[in-house]
From TrEMBL:
This is ABC transporter ATP-binding protein. Residues 339-350 have a biased composition (Polar residues). Keywords: ATP-binding, Cell inner membrane, Cell membrane, Membrane, Nucleotide-binding, Translocase, Transport. GO terms for cellular component: plasma membrane.
Amino acid sequence: MSVLEVSDLEVYYETESAPAQAVDGVSFSIEEGENLGIVGESGCGKTTLAKAIIGILPDEGYVNRGSIEFDGRDLTEMSEAERRRYKWEEISMIAQSAMNALDPVYTIHEQIVEAIETHRPGTGRTESNEIVAEMFDLVGLDPERADDYPHQFSGGMRQRAMIAMALALEPSLVLADEPTTALDVIMQDQILKRIGEIQSDINSSMMVITHDVSVVAETCDRVIVMYAGKIAEEGPVEEIFGNPYHPYTIGLKRAFPNIRQSDQDLLSIAGYPPELTDPPSGCRFAERCPIATDECRTVEPEAQQQGDLRTYCHYADEIDDGFRSRADDPETWEETEAARSTRSAAEVNN
Ligand SMILES: Nc1ncnc2c1ncn2[C@@H]1O[C@H](COP(=O)(O)OP(=O)(O)OP(=O)(O)O)[C@@H](O)[C@H]1O
Ligand SMILES: [Mg+2]
């Protein structure tokens, strides 16, 4: 059964010019106990999506359209007071910037206890204290340090405190936004294992936002690749990384360090994602895509099903091993419009 069902979601930010279409027509669901990864370049709307789901968009951010059904109810239709009950208790978030998410004037202990007591009014102080100590222990923090203030923690410790707080109320959905970026590789590994254990204990689902493909490979069942506010491709983790159909996923795969082929040169995709206040009308990736045609530049692609993959590309069914092997060649990415415009900008500057 789906825990979360997002349909045709648009999340915009007011800006001085036009609204920034940070999340634009996004639909997906997360099943009970499932881990869904969200990957994509910086600025493609991952954090915005998570904030819209838990309901912590800043004042200038708003849901323009679409629905977010959690447990069968549309969160976008609820009053603030009603939504507050879901926060932390049912849906929690491990925020990308742990410093901003923790309140600087309360100790970590006070913050977790306050969350527990607000959402579970019957809980006595002794029990809350026990939960805090247990959670600290689980994320590898010394329970004695619980009385510290956030600024007394290192970045990695704050991130672990965030994780402790996000899991303390055993929520059914955890939104983890770059949950382990401030941690070293050994700690990262331990924490991911611990999160996995707690999760299977409480049967919660997780949405994992990350730049780190090894984190997705290790923790997720399914992956969504986002590009400029939209879903480019979605499917089981082995297929997204093994045999993708979207040229962006194929390019992205080459841009990530590969665990198995670490000697391979990393390739970047020339150019940048488009301005979200004025996105192109066709496929948002067209300018950087080696196989884009006029159709791509004018008509927005619908989803195409390729086996278990959902791919938003006009030419998904024509992507074959020919393109996949060409994609390994740096020249393939040097002939895109974005690469040409980057080159001519460099000429102007010289
Ligand atoms: N408060 C805001 N006002 C206006 N635009 C915003 C605001 N917050 C984010 N944006 C814009 O929305 C888009 C998506 O931002 P978001 O933070 O969701 O990206 P992201 O995918 O999480 O990136 P990263 O990987 O760098 O964390 C970006 O273009 C960003 O500039
Ligand atoms: Mg982000």
